[in-house]
Design a protein that fits this description.
Blueprint: H1 19-38, H2 44-56, E1 58-60, H3 61-68, H4 72-84, E2 88-92, E3 100-104, H5 106-115, H6 118-123, H7 130-144
Antiparallel strand pairs: 1-3, 2-3
């Protein structure tokens, strides 16, 4: 085994890792969402699923998993809980029984009104200028391997 100096291990220092501030920021932002989402009886993951459904109304569970970067092991139990709350329905597609169609209910649509204040409330929690937020948004989607707004197939404002 070759003789290693501390310089050989600099790449292992936490302050030299891009993954750590990404992880820590994601946890911090989700923590800041929590009190607002508690008012809606939603977890953060349920909230982002509802955002998709408010926009699209109906989609397959595969489309939802792809858009949210969730595997079926995470998505399926979450959708079952949301269905039990009356926010959505899950049905096998008549065209292809392998596809599960997820549709927002009237109750789920009504929740959108209560959630409409959350983005503005959260904007006050994040200390970035609009240009910085737009740049971060662009870079994060680039890291994900998708262009900005790829979840909808078009560019969106940050």
């Amino acid at each position: 085994m070759e003789n290693r100096t501390t310089e050989n291990y600099d790449s292992l220092k936490i302050e030299n890792q891009l993954c750590f501030p990404l992880y820590a920021c994601a946890r911090q932002v989700i923590r800041q969402y929590k009190p607002y989402l508690d008012e809606l009886d939603l977890t953060y993951t349920q909230y982002i699923a509802m955002m998709l459904l408010w926009d699209r109304r109906c989609m397959t569970s595969k489309e939802m998993g792809d858009a949210l970067y969730l595997d079926s092991g995470t998505l399926t139990p979450m959708l079952k809980k949301m269905e039990a709350k009356g926010l959505l329905t899950r049905r096998r597609s008549p065209e292809d029984e392998r596809n599960l169609t997820v549709t927002v209910t009237e109750e789920g649509l009504a929740l959108r009104e209560r959630a409409s204040e959350i983005p503005a409330r959260m904007a006050g929690c994040i200390d970035l200028q609009p240009q910085e937020a737009a740049q971060l948004y662009f870079l994060l989607y680039r890291l994900l391997g998708r262009g900005p707004g790829a979840a909808k197939g078009k560019e969106t404002d940050a």
